[in-house]
Design a protein that fits this description.
Helix content: 10-25%
Number of strands: 3
Shape: elongated
Largest sheet: 3 strands, mixed
Number of helices: 1
Length: 78
Amino acid sequence: MYTLSLEAVNISEFRRICLRVLDKLPPGGLIITRNGRPVAKVTPLPADPRELIGSVSDLRVRPDDDLLSTALHWDAES
């Protein structure tokens, strides 16, 4: 049975109780394991998406980097 103190669960058990787990996801999240080894972590999203800014450690941002660029030159009028 799922409780709020649950920190890790086998993937088969997670599949069985997934919807209940997501409804009561603990603040620290839940580690999903396969054969005793961690394979994923499910964490709740903050209420305000702006809280996600800066949440990825070791992320490097270059001000001149265009995230939408394909690095291919094209002319919209041709």
